[in-house]
């Protein structure tokens, strides 16, 4: 509950930007325009044609203490806000459905084009016929905002990083964690930009609807009355009020939205004595690849590759760049289909029905950049408590960086986080694609010790360009191609 007042406080104190120098520059410009307005009002000499700023301030001052003013503001705010929020949630939901089921996107396309192209006035008249004047602003604001949020949601979801989606497939990240960890960060910038436009539009459309429908006790009604009584000063005072509320609500809403991306709402890890790290393999797992072929167009990358590895002895693959190491790993991880050949993975002691699980350090880090190292591990290994993750990460990373967003960490720190994620995930086989790139000698040795400790007797496949890594790992060398 403390989220809202804090955000509100910040919105009030920093609007439109936190930079005080900007205000100092803007003040003379504002004063210039106010003076010009006042001079214009004096020159015109008719407060009906053009009310000056002094008259507007006077009108506002006489409106502010009246109950009717606050009642009108509250009613319009409530109705326009209700229309906006309903459109926000349904727009995201329907957008997500359309992203999942492409036939829905095709089906809805004409409706969205219709909503986007119909003139606002026609909308309002139509809404007036459907709902009557009382709920007119709700429906109008809804109809304006829904298509914007729908379109932005689809675009945002489509922009989700494919590499992260592959990572999620390997670590079997599904459901809520996948939504929060992968889709939401991709969607958020699109939603923010959509809401920035949609909030202003919902106010413009909502008030226009109220002026046409004249529902009682609303800002629209007051604007209408100002017109009837030719009270230009009041009209300006109401306009100023609308702009202020619209900008403030935009600011507060965007701040709240932005906050959802800062701290991931991941389910809590188990917080008990049993959530200790346990990654023991059985020592009898083995991997066998027979006559693997893989081509990309005319380029044959893997040609009759045969390979055998047993748990307990790290398998180190060396080969020049472009020799197919990454492609081979991707085949093992099930991310590429071989053109020919077969891969057999065996874990003798596991139940026949239980699937063979793998974890990986990809050639790129493939971390959720907005999350801390701890949250990145929580995402992939939901069974571990935060305390256990912290303890494990501290073995290869400085304590201070464990809760900072990964985006702010050095390349080497990110690499170590990716390595820890692969090792902490309960897998039968760990595949590491050039895991030690970007690590200095001392750190590399420390990390290699941790890899050996944590891989226990699981199947471990590592590609590297350094012969020294092979001896430090005590591994078996396989040369590619
Ligand atoms: P390594 O990891 O040994 O450096 P890779 O397996 O990444 O080698 O790549 C081997 C070759 O396959 C390279 O020439 C690369 O350009 C090509 N390659 C890899 N993936 C693709 C792809 N998806 N489409 C086309 N070519 C690819
Ligand atoms: Mg590679």
Descriptive notes:
By secondary structure, this protein is an alpha/beta fold. A five-stranded parallel beta sheet has the order 5-6-7-3-8, sandwiched between helices. A three-stranded antiparallel beta sheet has the order 2-1-4, covered by helices on one side. A hairpin with a 2-residue loop joins strand 1 and strand 2. Helix 4 packs antiparallel against helix 5, helix 4 crosses helix 10 and helix 9 runs antiparallel to helix 11. The longest helix is centred in the middle third of the chain and has 39 residues. About 1% of the residues have low confidence. The structure holds adenosine-5'-diphosphate (ADP) and magnesium ion. Adenosine-5'-diphosphate (ADP) binds next to strand 2 and helix 12.
Keywords:
alpha/beta, single chain, binds adenosine-5'-diphosphate, binds magnesium ion, 11% strand, 58% helix, 481 residues
Portion in beta strands = 5-15%
Cofactors, ions, other ligands = adenosine-5'-diphosphate, magnesium ion
Number of strands: 8
Unreliable spans:
270-276
Shape: elongated
Taking all Cα atoms into account, the compactness measure Rg is 31 Å
Give the helices and strands as they follow along the chain. Answer: HHHHHHHHHHHEEEHEEHHHEHEHE
Major beta sheet summary: 5 strands, parallel
How would you state the average pLDDT, rounded?
Answer: 86
Q: Which structural class is indicated by helix and strand composition?
A: alpha/beta
> Number of helix segments?
17
Widest sheet, order of strands: 5-6-7-3-8
Helical fraction = 55-70%
Distance between the termini: 60 Å
């Amino acid at each position: 509950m403390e989220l809202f007042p804090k955000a509100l406080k910040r919105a009030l104190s920093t609007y439109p930007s936190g930079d005080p120098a900007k205000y100092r520059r803007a003040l003379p410009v504002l004063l210039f325009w106010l003076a010009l307005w006042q001079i214009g009002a004096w020159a015109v000499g008719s407060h009906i044609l053009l009310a000056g700023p002094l008259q507007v301030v006077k009108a506002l001052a006489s409106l502010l203490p009246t109950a009717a003013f606050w009642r009108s503001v509250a009613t319009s705010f409530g109705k326009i806000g209700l229309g906006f929020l309903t459109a926000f949630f349904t727009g995201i939901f329907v957008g997500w459905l359309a992203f999942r089921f492409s036939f829905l996107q095709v089906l809805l396309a004409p409706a969205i084009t219709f909503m986007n192209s119909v003139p606002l006035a026609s909308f309002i008249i139509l809404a007036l016929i459907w709902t009557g004047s009382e709920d007119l602003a709700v429906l109008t604001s809804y109809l304006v905002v829904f298509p914007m949020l729908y379109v932005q949601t689809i675009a945002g979801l489509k922009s989700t990083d494919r590499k992260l989606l592959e990572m999620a497939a390997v670590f079997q990240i599904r459901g809520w964690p996948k939504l929060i960890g992968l889709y939401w960060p991709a969607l958020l910038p699109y939603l923010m930009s959509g809401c920035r436009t949609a909030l202003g539009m919902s106010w413009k459309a909502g008030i226009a609807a109220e002026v046409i429908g004249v529902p009682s006790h609303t800002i629209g009604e007051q604007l209408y009355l100002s017109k009837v009584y030719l009270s230009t000063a009041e009209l300006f005072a109401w306009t100023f009020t609308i702009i202020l509320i619209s900008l403030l609500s935009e600011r507060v809403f965007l701040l709240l939205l932005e906050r959802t991306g800062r701290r991931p709402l991941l389910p809590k890890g188990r917080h008990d004595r049993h959530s200790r790290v346990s990654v023991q393999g059985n020592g009898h797992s083995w991997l066998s690849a027979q006559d693997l072929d893989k081509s990309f167009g005319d380029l044959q990358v893997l040609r009759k590759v045969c390979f055998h590895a047993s748990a307990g002895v790290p398998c180190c693959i060396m080969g020049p760049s472009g020799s197919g190491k990454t492609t081979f790993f991707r085949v093992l991880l099930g991310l590429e289909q071989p053109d020919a050949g077969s891969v057999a993975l065996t874990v003798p002691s596991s139940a026949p029905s239980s699937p063979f699980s793998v974890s990986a350090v990809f050639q790129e880090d493939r971390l959720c950049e907005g999350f801390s190292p701890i949250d990145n591990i929580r995402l992939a290994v939901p069974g571990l408590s935060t305390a256990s993750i912290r303890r494990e990460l501290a073995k290869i990373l400085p304590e201070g960086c464990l809760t900072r967003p990964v985006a702010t960490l050095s390349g080497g720190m990110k690499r170590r986080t990716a390595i820890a994620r692969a090792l902490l995930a309960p897998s039968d086989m760990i595949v590491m694609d050039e895991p030690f790139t970007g690590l200095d000698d001392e750190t590399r040795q420390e990390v290699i010790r941790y890899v050996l400790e944590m891989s226990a007797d699981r199947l471990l496949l590592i590609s590297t360009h350094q012969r020294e890594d092979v001896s430090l790992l005590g591994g078996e060398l396989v040369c590619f191609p």
